[in-house]
Amino acid sequence: MEEREMKSEKEPAQAGGARRLLLRLGALLLETVLLIVIALYGVMFVLAKGPSPTARNLFVLSVRETSAVGFLANLFFSEEEIAQMEDPSAEEEYRDTDTSLIVIPPDSNGEDGADPWGLVDEDGDGIILEEVYGEGYHGYMMVVLDPVRVIMGSRPEDFGVRGYTVAEMVESFDAVAGINAGGFYDPDGRGNGSIPDTLVVSDGKVYSPERGTAQGFAGFDKDHILHVGRLSAEEIHSQEIQTGVCFGPVLISNGEPRSADSLPSGINPRTGIGQRSDGAVLLLVIEGRQVTSLGATYYDMVEVFQSFGAVNACNLDGGSSSMMWFDGDYVNKCGSVVGIRRVPTTFLVLKEGEKAGG
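and the corresponding structure tokens:
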């Protein structure tokens, strides 16, 4: 009897001890989280209000270019102050694409695998994949020697219904490679990637022209020449553009690169498209939000495209959407912690012997 009474006295004591331990662990966890938040806020405060305008602008523009944490800039600055950082002092003048600068040879795959820019198509498939490096970033440039193989992959019938990952779009069009392309509505980072936020051109038809072209348009005409600029729906029709998307900004136009001062930006994952004078299409992705690659600025992209001979080039949707698929897998690491995102538009590379509109 006495032994049972001692056990019954121990059980409440043990239960109380467990509760106290859980409360202490909870308090410790809460304190740790609070300290981390305070530390992060302190770092952001130093970047935002410190003596370096360069650090301030990089911080503000980097977070503003994301859909999930863009609000962080508003903790320290008004919308008017942010607008001054986002917009260059002088508006860049855009010119019509000079199609005479692009001359596509009869054999766009070159001779004996040789590339005029010193690159080598080792397996003879008409695609050259090169790694690119810069200060604080790492990425990949895909050179598609025959521009007739590059299409804008989208499913207009699914606009507003569902989006597709780059891999799904590659499979849907029976292509061999692809990158993400235009932007899309993504309220609070929870969109399903199905609604383009600007106009889209597919098979010569303009979808949602009332949404405009944002900071820039990139699309191919019937002769497979890439046009970049701020084109209206009327200009798209007059220049016989068959496929295209919007995002921007334009990086290189008619061989003239934009200046660093006219391209304010943060450091983020990037995607872009360009074209050389021989018609070869340049598809670029730069990894970001990684330990080994923080990301790139717009002007970093200008320099990369220039090094590959781009006559025209345009920035596409970046951040968590930046992905490149080739040879059965993703080439780059995704910058999103929640996984590969679905998008409404892509640029795809068809199999050898196939062509846009074929």
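(Above: one complete record from the training split.) The longest helix spans residues 2-49.
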